[in-house]
């Protein structure tokens, strides 16, 4: 097939980042087309002047393939069609040969036996991207890799009066990832935090295993899609659950949740003071690559942006319900409109959770210096990520999962779920929708980056977490930024938004970028409004001079502050925030399940309406048509793609979902 | 690919049965870059003008709306000075009203209608909108002047060029409009010739 390397030179920087990230999917849905388009347009440019023949030939080839594609799709059984669509194996008509489709189908069918296989493969395939990523020097990734290697990692740090502690654990076998972040705010104290590394390995974790949670899936086509990172539909399936409360992870993350929760409960409320210098040393020793540190430092810098004026945290009042609300609040945060009361509530919730939540695993008994006596506001984030295998996912009804997530709201549980399968765009949009509709459910498009394997997943998780923080715990920024002085004086103000993005996971950046991009595409106006805003904010945040509070301490160490790990997320936070805000206007699509619930039939010669109004092509005998509740019919592959991003009939604009729900309910 | 096959069909339809007052064609070798012309409607201040538009077809078309903007300056509440058009059909839902069953032809028709019936309630150009609402006479005059200056003269030039078919004469005939205009007109004329045949 075609191998496209960066061609989108004209596009915004975002795209570059996105491109780097790449995804593997061969999506029936969103991504593929652009790729094609790019290629096409290139061809057109050249062809016009130089090689019209070549171009024509290519178009003819494409037409043939297109025919073959439709033929192939028509002949697919219902299950096979779904299987392929959901796994992004259909690609774009004209782009893929029938043989390839067949082999993919075969592959995917074989896949289920080896649960992990499919995912891994795709990851591995992302070769080109991986390289790019490498160039990116993503420190976060480094860190994540470390995590993977160790299995469990604990970090803590403090800034000014805040101390944080992050514990991450990975289960290489399952690919589950768990990250908990605890933030303590001590107004009176500025102490150093000790950050013990967690020696313990998670149950059954082996380092080697950690690397490749899933079995590799070979996807021959990947290269061609590389160019189009943004559009790529490929999504890793992750379920991320953020639980401020100690409770065991949501049902989705059974593996991790069980083991982790008990430990969580044990730890007392975190107090920064406990941390001892020696720890630091440890930490340092443990410190990951220099890059990492750099990243952190950077992040710190960037953090300043977050220091928007937020109302000071009030005394924590344990109000689980309030917490719940907080989750739904996401949007408000974005607007920074949140009412203090809510904040309190959230804090309270967090505080409540804290005692139990404090990750015990990470800290050795001595190391943990948290004094119960101090009851600074604590924010506890517990994030769990679990890889969902394609097959697995299918079994779950997304509606059900949403419902579940909603019910979990009471626990202030956030669930991030991304599906593997074509709806990449949908993701960003449904994500938005998720924010709006299901507060606690957010869908995140996840891209595969290289063969990093687990790290990939973890990075995604982190990303999700960040998002989560942004949305659900926007207040955190307040804490983090409360002492602006803490920022690095050494670094000086530099950071361009890109910077932050770059250092973050490329994936994250990509996601953000793609989101922005899609928003832009969808609505130029909104794009105009949204992006600038983002930048502004970023600028703001950075602008504030980073003083020395904490830097002073760090000074000796130089730019590579070890304590920063926690800051990473926060930086992101700001970005995501804005992006989320932006995204909100995006249309929302249907889930695969919802689409599948719509009836289909085969075209018969006697039918009255003979043209699909999406592709303006007449139906051919044997074409598979999908009939919407309003009775309008389209090619299955045409309408599915539209519905993956929209929820209305392309002809009459009637809402598809409402009626379909009714039907399905009955 | 869906976009291309659909575009081919659309272009064919546009050439065989174009909507009245509208023409649309493909620029050289670029299937995703189209040009269109809309004739100013009768009894509108745009009467007699020939307004050119640039149409970019996104990769995801028809799942995304085509991007259209005016190349010819036009004085209109819903079209800004850079030619951007405020029209719901050009935006995706939920904000907009684009749907895949629309097509270039229908959108161009909508734009034609928008020219005849501005929507001051959803203005892109606040000043013009205000004028349209509260001082219509002024609006009409200005719009007419703009039409004469940018849309009609160029058109005359075009006619002349057609008669003479000489490149240099064409140059002379070209009015000194905006730079952009002058720049565009050349290629447009070439294109229109093609389209005419």
TrEMBL record, chain A:
Its EC number is 2.3.2.27. This is RING-type E3 ubiquitin transferase. It comes from the Eukaryota. Transmembrane segments: none annotated. Pathway: Protein modification; protein ubiquitination. Residues 288-303, 530-540 have a biased composition (Basic and acidic residues). The keyword Calcium does not apply.
Automatic annotation (TrEMBL), chain B:
Residues 172-197 are annotated as: Disordered. The keyword ATP-binding applies. This is Ubiquitin-conjugating enzyme E2 T. It comes from Megalops atlanticus. Pfam families: UQ_con (PF00179). Gene3D superfamilies: Ubiquitin Conjugating Enzyme. Keywords: ATP-binding, Nucleotide-binding, Transferase, Ubl conjugation pathway. PROSITE patterns: UBC_1, UBC_2. Residues 2-152 form the UBC core domain. Its EC number is 2.3.2.23. GO terms for molecular function: ATP binding; ubiquitin conjugating enzyme activity. Belongs to the ubiquitin-conjugating enzyme family. The active site is at residue 86.
